[in-house]
Amino acid sequence: MNFTELSSSVRPEIIRATQAMGYTEMTEIQQKAIPLMLAGHDMIAKAPTGTGKTVAFGIPILQKAAGFPAGAPKAVVLSPTRELAQQIAQDLTNLAQFLPEIRVVCVYGGAGLEKQQKQLKAGCQIVVATPGRLMDHYRHHALDLSQVTTIVLDEADEMLNMGFYKDVRGIIDLLKSRESLSMFSAT
């Protein structure tokens, strides 16, 4: 299935970005996950590394976030590591390259809290974060989670194995507007 076949349910700017990134044919995980997430379903997905899981959840997140002004985020993507969070944020930014109103903010431990707080206060539609740092920003009132409708746990199994269960559970419980929860992991 080609990405252009999503044109009836996905903004042309997002389709154009997939083409600019060199993607033409969807992988199996993308074919299965994108329609489910666009429909707002909760899901658990497992696919090998390198099969395009970030694009699989990124397209629906961007589709839902587009058209909203940068303010309180509409989506949160949790990652177990700083490196993966940075990679996800870059991939989402690339997917949003033709949607100039979209702001993606990446927050993680080991970096300056104040700089991240300024980015969050400037507004965004999507936050990519490690669980502990997201909770730090929430506790410091730098992050409004009241409008988050979508949460994705990337490498969910790793996050739970690394001892993030309490933070992840706490974050999910804070999302009063949550419409969908998706968990992705590598095989």
Describe the structure.
Pfam families: DEAD. Residues 34-187 form the Helicase ATP-binding domain. By secondary structure, the protein is an alpha/beta fold. It has eight helices and six strands, in the order H-H-E-H-E-H-E-H-E-H-E-H-H-E. Strand 3, helix 5 (113-121) and strand 4 (126-129) form a beta-alpha-beta unit. Helix 2 runs parallel beside helix 3, helix 3 (53-65) crosses helix 4 (82-95) and helix 6 (131-139) packs across helix 8 (165-174). The two termini are 23 Å apart.
Shape: globular
Which class of secondary structure composition applies to the elements? alpha/beta
Strand content: 15-25%
Find the CATH topology.
Rossmann fold
Q: Could you estimate the helical fraction of the residues in percent?
A: 40-55%
Q: Give the ordered list of helices and strands.
A: HHEHEHEHEHEHHE
| Domain count | 1
Under CATH, the homologous superfamily reads P-loop containing nucleotide triphosphate hydrolases
Instruction: Let me know the average pLDDT.
Output: 95
Q: Taking strands numbered 1, 2, ... along the chain, how are they ordered across the largest sheet?
A: 1-6-5-2-4-3
Radius of gyration: 15 Å
CATH hierarchy: architecture: 3-Layer(aba) Sandwich
**DSSP summary, beta strand count:** 6
SS field, number of helical segments: 8
Protein name: DEAD/DEAH box helicase domain-containing protein
Domain DEAD-box RNA helicase Q: 3-31
GO molecular function, one term: RNA helicase activity
Pfam families: DEAD
